[in-house]
Amino acid sequence: MKNLKELENRINITFKNKYLLENVFIHRSYLNEHKHFYLPSNEKMEFLGDSVLSLITSVYLFKKYPHLAEGDYTEIKSSIVRTESLAEAALSLDLSEYLYLSRGQARELGKKNKNILADCFEALIAAIFLDDSFEKAYNFVLRHLFTDKLAKIIENKLYLSPKSKLQEITQARFKVTPNYKVLEEKGPEHNRIFKVEVVIKGKIYETGIGKSKKEAEEEAARRTLVTLI
């Protein structure tokens, strides 16, 4: 395992409580093999970090993009704090090199597991918040998660779901909103499969399949966007 001092230098933050920083990297699987380890898992810190990150994102959007609607804020938050984005940020900081994992998780490439990496990044946000302040955690997130990425998402409206993007395009191009028609619904109640098609001004476009009507509609919208753009 790498020296955590390297990480402190990389993020330009020196922890007063070194145990807090170390706790960021204790995956629950490690404790299954080391039941008397002196630190708990990082799950509670990840829980706190998730809440702190949500507040940081809300404050930043409110200050930086006052012209956007509340619905836009929600969509943008979802796109920037999703697992993939957090995992990418974790990898850019080499957080995987500090993880305490079980031998099984290590064999199964746990250090590349997006969920584990995302949780680790959120735990690090919590550690910075607890060790210092909200402001320090805020600036950390701006540097290592928002830089370049968030501006690109907003400028190109990448935060919009396929359905939202399609509605925006069809209203501009055809002066109507798309309709979604359920073609098929099958399978047991706990495992339904839906097939949906997009209809715009009476013309049938693409179909989508999903485990919920919403999922099928999003897939149909995504495929229709490909034909329209």
TrEMBL record:
It comes from the Bacteria. Residues 161-229 form the DRBM domain. The active site is at D50, E122. GO terms for cellular component: cytoplasm. It catalyses: Endonucleolytic cleavage to 5'-phosphomonoester. This is Ribonuclease 3. Mg(2+) binds at E46, D119, E122. Its cofactor is Mg(2+). PANTHER family: RIBONUCLEASE 3, RIBONUCLEASE III. GO terms for biological process: mRNA processing; regulation of gene expression; rRNA processing; tRNA processing. It is found in: Cytoplasm. Pfam families: dsrm, Ribonucleas_3_3. Digests double-stranded RNA. Involved in the processing of primary rRNA transcript to yield the immediate precursors to the large and small rRNAs (23S and 16S). Processes some mRNAs, and tRNAs when they are encoded in the rRNA operon. Processes pre-crRNA and tracrRNA of type II CRISPR loci if present in the organism. It comes from Candidatus Roizmanbacteria bacterium RIFCSPLOWO2_01_FULL_35_13. Homodimer. Belongs to the ribonuclease III family. Its EC number is 3.1.26.3. The keyword Cytoplasm applies.
